[in-house]
Amino acid sequence: MSRISPPSHEELNLLFTQACEDYRNDRLEAAGEGYRKLLFYCGDAPILHYNLGLVHFQQEGFAEARDCFARAAELAPQDNDILFNLALS
What we know:
Largest sheet: none
Helix content: over 70%
Shape: globular
Distance between the termini: 46 Å
Number of helices: 5
């Protein structure tokens, strides 16, 4: 039985870049999917929770956005952008 290896740093970087581009171009479903894939491998990265929160917020999923921003705030409690968006949602 073969084992699937995790993506390389370069592959993760490309996935992040694509997810950000999808968000900028209002392809919210694709952006959310990209951020969720990245979270599978990098679950403690506050920027991923924050960016996924932005996707949910744009989709008017305010409870989901709040949860993402709350997790990001746990990981980066001094980040004012995260705290602002948490309060906003």
